[in-house]
Amino acid sequence: MDIDTEREIHQLTLDAIVSGRLLAEDWLEGSLAPTGTAKALILETLRSLRERESLPHVDRDLIEAMGEQIRNALNEIRDGKGDAALSREVDLVWEQNQQVIEYANLACRWRRFKEAMIALDDRLAATRMAGLLLASVV
């Protein structure tokens, strides 16, 4: 692996670690408590992300389950706001409900973490595939 590829993977890993830590800190310090069958797994993952330990154990299904928790909680307070917050930035300028603001900000952290994880996974897959393709040519 060349130095540029190593640097790119390092930067993508750093982005995923930082965005995961920020998501975990905001979630664990806030008022949103995970519910349902994924509760224990989400809490364990958030604690691990806060300590910068669990990236290899976070898969897309878990990320989506975390997003669903945020979406559902926000939709309960303001119908449709959770759906909007998980897909894009939402306008909070005139928002008075502190819980809506907290959950919308959490949704933003979640989106950034999801994007960082996808970018890292894509780059690692490309590196593996390039290695396989190059090996088959030789």
UniProtKB/TrEMBL annotation:
This is Uncharacterized protein. It comes from the Bacteria.
